[in-house]
Amino acid sequence: MKLPVKMTINGQSVSHEVEPRLLLVHYIRETVGLTGTHVGCDTSQCGACTITMNGQAVKSCTLFAVQATGANIMTIEGLAKDGELHPIQQGFWEKHGLQCGFCTPGMIMAAVQMLERYPKPTEEIIRHQLEGNLCRCTGYHNIVKAIEWAADKMAAAK
Amino acid sequence: MAVTEDRLFGKSIKRTEDPRFITGRGKYVDDLKLPGMTYAAFVRSPHAHARIKGIDVSQAKAHPGVIAVYTGKDMTGVNSLPCGWDLRKEKGIPGVVQDLAMVPHMPLTSDVARHVGDPVAVVIAESQDAAQDGAEKVQVSWEPLASVTATDKATGSGAAKVHDAAPSNVAFKWALGDAAATDTAFKGAAVTVKKRIVNQRLVANAMEPRACVARFDDATGELTLWVTSQNPHVHRLLMCAFVLGIPEHKVRVIAPDVGGGFGSKIFLYNEEVVCSWASRLLKRPIRWTSSRREAYLTDAQGRDHITDAEVALSKEGKILALRVKTTANLGAYLSTFAPAVPTFLYGTLLNGVYDIKAIHVEVTGVFTNTTAVDAYRGAGRPEACYVLERIVDAAAAALKMDPAELRKKNFIPKFSGAFQTQVAVSYDSGDYLGAFEKLLSIFDYKKFRTEQEAARKQGRLLGVGFSTYIEACSIAPSKLVGALGAGAGLYESGKVRVHPTGGVTVYTGSHAHGQGHETTFAQLVGDELGIPMEQIEIVHGDTGQIPFGMGTYGSRSASVGGTAIKMSLDKIKEKGKRIAAHLLEASPKDIEYVKGQFQVKGVPAKAVPFGAVALTAYVPHNYPEGLEPGLEETSFYDPSNFCFPFGAHACVVEIEPETGKVKIVRYIAVDDVGNVINPMIVDGMVHGGIAQGVGQALWEGAVYDSESGQLVTSTMMDYAMPKADMLPMYETDRTVTPTPVNPLGIKGAGETGTIAATPAVVNAVVDALAGMGVDHIETMPLNAERVWKTIQAAKAGK
Amino acid sequence: MYPAAFEYHSPTTLKDVLGLMGKHGDDAKVVAGGHSLIPMMKLRLAQPKHLIDLRNVPGLKGIKEDGNTIVIGAMTTWYELESNATIKSKCAIVGETASIVGDPAVRNLGTIGGGLAHADPAADMPATAIACGFEFVCEGPKGRRTVKVDDWFQGLMSTAVKEDELLVEIRVPAIAKGTGAAYLKFPHPASRFAIVGVAAVVTTDGSGTCSKASIGVTGAGTKAVRAKGVEAALAGKNLAGAGAIEAAAQKAAEGVDVQADLQGSVEYKAHLCRVFAKRAVEAASKRA
Fold it and tell me: Where does a domain end: A16, A46, A78?
């Protein structure tokens, strides 16, 4: 039996009738059609599905769409404003923080929360706050550099 | 090629492909939504080995939303997935001692399931949920059989037989080198050291799970297959010619954005074949995406060698001979390249960077009731390097010699042109001492030994491990690999199409799933043509657009793929010269191409820019007689040899004695990959490779339960991959010894990190424990418990 | 990856929650943060026909002081605990333990109530619960009752909460002056669950003599347990004395039904219990 859900995604209101068992990540990818958020595992380890919900980083594979009704969701597609890249996106580009790109949206969204909570993170904090995001390509070196670059840029802008 | 200010080659340019990835607009296979698309779910064996007594699909078929259910019996006329590498004496393939047992590998097995996850049926439904629910309703009547999973138990008497055609589960036996010379050298040697070295099974775990969408268009008879492939043409050829028997020219295989491969996406798998076949029946698109658990069970796995290695040395530490006996687990079936990995990609690297005069290697490939094993980053070369670097360190310990000194004593002296090894291959160019000395200029080895000693007195365990490696990549000369059993050539294609308005589209048979070819190839083209990168488009991953290519693996894209492009660029420039000569009323041999214009030699003022020549080629009004219009060229480059990157890595570890936990304190890599198009991208390749190499050394390992045959490590909760907080920043540097094999001087870089890092880490751990009398640890990963147990045993004097 | 179908309920009162639980019995599961249950549902290891979501039930969240007790609503998330000023000042160990559960995204949604009711044998907070002496307030159709921690963890993933009850509140005694507390764990490299985790709450007098020690051990066994042997061995000892803590820590594996797995044999995990008991007690006593 389908249930109505209504939420805001990247500033747009969306509403649909969905089966309760529809995971939020599948709602975002298949129903709403925003495929930037990815599925990389079945056990909530990899973080490729990371979005922000009500301002917090959340693994969208680990909740049902019906649980997110009423929420304010941002996915990777909503990060750049008016065509201007977010400093974290820029940092990943500047510092070669991605190779195949599959983990990247989740990494970036995790970094959004990280820099909100730790505006001047040390390398140790960055690495610890990325515990929930796996990358198989980069060895993390340039991801750390990308986030450091973004932190500097965001601090300078203040 | 020296890097100058204007050149793009050698510059760390930001990647052109990044904008779509950082904004979530990459197009991966699972992102595809086609009108009328259906979804596939596979029914898989829960047993490691079981006979299929019957399959009842009636309940599944009746489930709402289910369109069709197929089993192996339905797939009449469909052949086995092919193994693309033969090892048979009658074909004159060198080294074959016992012929490869070419066992069948049906896309849906109908007699016996041979590993957990072996697919036996597929459910096609209107939704993913319905497909999954339907799959649960397929009733398979199983007769469980005894299974064998352990590499060293496969050939034992009484071991379960995986294939009727392979008595004692032997897949092949192979040998290389000079047995007699090796035996003689051992007999006369002052010192011999023998060690058992286990290279454990790994799971590639690219972050994007495998997926495919097969769409058969009944109106045109064309099949389009989108698939997570590193080599779409290979997928098409194998599937059409060998398995489904459908015309190749009616099939288009597209590998769009692919989220990593590391080898696991080279092979032709059951799922894309079944979906392609079913789409032709149902006349609707079918999408299948692997779950991560399915990936653990079905993606080709890596490594899994058990080796007894012996080295013979003089008392001064000169290596005289190497004898290696390896058992290589191939899993339950022959994956596409599988027989090549523990033979020609392994044995031929056992000379390493050392001047060893006599080598003999024997390999027995075995079948077990486990997932098939095939190439995984490095594919055979990590296994070889691991054997060499461990036995060299063990030899140093036996001789009470410094491991750096022992290496220096034995490096092949600097050469260019050729070095003939004892194991068939001839290296292209090398300066192994040079790389090692560069490493030692970055890493103050003497200072470390002092620190280590002081730390030891405080009860702290610090260690350093070296890894001086060589590897063979840029595969490969077609005739050579053909003679070794390859069913395919290993050339690469590169088509350059200049448009009338001066833009350039390059079609490459290489495929990028993280390597950044859209940037690096554009740098190459931009340099050669003197045009800005914005004017260049790199197209890859589509058999409908690109001449036949062999794809990306074996670190071959810049070297082999890049050279094919260069060849086409050279042809373009030659033709351009003829057009320009006509326009300039000069002779073509008086025309040179400099900074984006064709000019009379030495007279820049008398020139025609590239764009004007391009337009003229398509509007051939003022045009040389007898010359065809158009400006596009295709080349196929078949390399004359492999290329041999080499280098020296050092890893410093600290072990927490109470727990055995190993921390990587410092990691330094000096690599010689020949010329480098984009240093930032090559560094990235090295970083990622190091992470995977460290992962193997310390945390990873696919474990099968010896009783049940179940894959115990079948989720990311159990199989430990490196996370950000487990690794340090890496220090990388390079030496540059261009290869003479290709005009770009590029050797290849994608796998060096993985090859070098594993032994560097293990050597460091052993070095940290050397003070307790430890000279070897047989098995990886060196997780905390294993290290702790080693310490306890050492303390107890074992 | 695709859970079995279920009916979803999002009640807005506790009474409705209990009513649904009563009505559907074994066919229903309650979901709090979802980060233990939903992964199981995705693998179809759990297939509840009814899912009762607690997210819209008021009164289950919040951190407040009630005299010397900190009262935590069961739906309070790990991150809320990690970042809360009252927790930091009154029972910092709770926030510190919360800060190393899972990963940052998991901590935003995972709840203390969900974690303590689910009682994964390798979860972190159970050890801290034992060491701190948490009290568990359960509400059922017959009203509220409070369960002490020593009665809470009963077996493998089973707690004292009854089938018709909901854990609604956790009561934590404030850490008194002269008492130090610490939780340390040896994490599984993949899952980051505790291979072994030890929480120690240690009270010493001015001279460093231990008057009370409360130690919880998680990870190695089928449930978190109180390390009574360690507690007894510490009582009355001067912790500053050479080897005193280490000697007491030797008893840390007693009463733990150590389970061998890929990360460790029984011998190794028992050893880790002793190592981490020593470290946790040392850290706690430094803070006392």
Answer: A78
